[in-house]
Amino acid sequence: TQLLEQSPQFLSIQEGENLTVYCNSSSVFSSLQWYRQEPGEGPVLLVTVVTGGEVKKLKRLTFQFGDARKDSSLHITAAQPGDTGLYLCAGAPGNQFYFGTGTSLTVIP
Amino acid sequence: DTAVSQTPKYLVTQMGNDKSIKCEQNLGHDTMYWYKQDSKKFLKIMFSYNNKELIINETVPNRFSPKSPDKAHLNLHINSLELGDSAVYFCASSQDTGGDTQYFGPGTRLTVL
Question: How far is CA B92 from CA A89, B5, B14, B78, in A?
Fold first, then answer.
């Protein structure tokens, strides 16, 4: 069992559909981050959520931090082929940084 | 100007060989990391290095050793390569440890034959 479990592991949807990715843990985090990794590249930070219950929007992406700061979600509205990639949540309950198990998203035109 | 760079991009070698991967960051960050990403895309931290303090993930074999000539560089040396070492290795840096944003290099795809 990993510290940060993501679901689903794989997601293939049609362009224009909505989707939600979940990131869950039994540990409390002072903050959680979401990264996106495209093929052949390293992960790139999308957002950091800090306050329990916080909601952040980045264009068509909405990120939420759970009230207890143990989980987070990423919702994408009207997905586009450019959203295709590996989505990773990440955080550090202590001094060590952990990445989630990852969600591989494919948006079909 | 590339923030975090790694060389080489691809590395193909025989079992038993020793190899090194180089990493440089020009962001002025205090902390650097090495990650291993396996075939299932799971990204696992191997080392973090901050102001000469090395934190090692206890699951990393001692055939792997990080070497930091200065704050901007953290190289990864691997002895006696094994088939299971085949993976993509990412270097990253952040201003500090903990939950600071990490900036990743483009990765080095290592294939051990």
Answer: 16, 9, 26, 18
Torsion-angle region of residue A29: left (phi > 0), alpha (psi -120 to 50) or beta?
Answer: beta
Q: Render pLDDT for A11-43 as a digit per residue (tens, 0 to 9).
A: 999 999 999 999 999 999 989 999 999 988 999
- Chain B residues with CB-CB distance to A45 below 8 A: 101-103
Residue B2 has pLDDT above 80, yes or no: no
Cβ–Cβ gap B99/A95 under 8 Å: no
Nearest residue to A31 (alpha-carbon basis) of B33, B98, B66 = B98
In order, the DSSP letters of chain B are --SEEEE-SEEEE-TT--EEEEEEE-S--SEEEEEEE-TT--EEEEEEEETTEEEE-TTS-TTEEEEEEETTEEEEEE-S--GGG-EEEEEEEESSSTT---EE---EEEEE-
A98/B45 Cβ within 8 A: yes
Determine how many CB atoms are found less than 10 A away from the CB of residue B27.
12
Question: B17 to chain A, minimum CA–CA distance in Å?
Answer: 25
* Contact across the interface for A96 and B33, Cβ inside 8 Å: no
Q: What are phi and psi of A81, to 5 degrees?
A: -55, -30
Q: What is the pLDDT of residue A88?
A: 97
